[in-house]
Amino acid sequence: MKHSTILPMTHSRTEQKVNGVKNIYKLTFNEFKKKQLGYATIAIIGQSCLGSAAAMVLLMGEMNMLLKMILLFLVTIFCMAFNGAVLAQLKPSTTFNILILSVVFSILVIVAHLF
Predict the structure, then answer these.
(1) What's the predicted TM-score (pTM) here?
(2) pLDDT tens-digit readout, 15-44
(3) Which of 43, 52, 69, 76 is deepest in the core (most CB within 10 A)?
């Protein structure tokens, strides 16, 4: 096995992109898991501020009141779910995934109302 020759396999660009996203996720999750207490504390502050900005943008926007309240409810629930996951000391993977969900949803709400 020491002197065997292995031919490198070429990958398509889509596989490289998917693997790149998976690698970024794995790297950030492993870092979050190692120092969960510190990162969770910082994430609560940042994610709460982002959720507050999303709520403000929603309330200032011109939109159907029912849709506005549903989106406001979802932003609030996702933010509270992460805060609850940290307080309940859930598994790092669950906490990290809820953090990503909350941040992505808040960013989508903000971006959707800017245009």
Answers:
(1) 0.78
(2) 556 678 889 999 999 999 998 889 999 999
(3) 43
